[in-house]
Design goal:
This protein is an alpha+beta fold and about 160 residues long. The protein has 2 helices and 8 strands. The chain has a domain at about 40-150: minor pseudopilin epsh fold (3-Layer(bab) Sandwich).
Length: about 160
């Protein structure tokens, strides 16, 4: 007697297909939640852009450019401009400008105003700045120290230690 094996069919079972569809649905729901709201992303990006602008202004000051500065403009869009003057009579030249659309976060700087760097790379007036970037779901508070460093505000709440 000859036993014939039925040909094996390849493919996915209904249970496997349903599990894949459920997994794709869960992953897409998580992904949309992470990328739909920019409020957690924008304050962090603002911190990084301020750090870059301060570093560029410091480098210009160390290179001997007169009146190297960072300008933090919070009207309309948020922008950080690294600028310098080659001579006292010259207008400011922008080295780099960073800007962010401020639909979902706000920025405050204490004390406000242009931040000048000396030829040693430190802040000319010796005053540290506290920058608060507030979003819908997160707040970033960081310091631009009198030495020109950008870092997270310590638990003491004081930028100078």
């Amino acid at each position: 007697m000859i036993i014939m094996n039925a040909p094996r069919q390849s493919g996915f079972t209904l249970v496997e297909l349903v599990m894949v569809i459920i997994l794709i649905g869960v992953l897409s729901a998580l992904g949309i939640g992470l990328f739909a709201g920019r409020s957690a992303f924008s304050p962090l990006l603002a911190t990084q852009q301020l750090s870059s602008a301060a570093l560029l202004a410091q480098q210009a000051a160390l290179a001997g450019k007169l009146e190297s500065s960072v300008v933090i403009v919070t009207a309309g869009d948020l922008s950080f401009n690294a600028q310098y003057k080659a001579n006292v009579s010259d207008p400011f030249t922008t080295i780099q400008s960073f800007s962010l659309d401020r639909d979902d976060f706000s920025v405050s700087v204490e004390p406000p105003g242009r931040i000048y760097f000396s030829n040693t790379g430190t802040v000319s007036d010796g005053v540290s700045r506290i920058v608060i970037v507030s979003g819908d779901s997160s707040n970033f508070t960081f310091c631009l120290s009198s030495l020109g460093a950008v870092y997270q505000l310590p638990p003491s709440g004081n930028c100078d230690g």
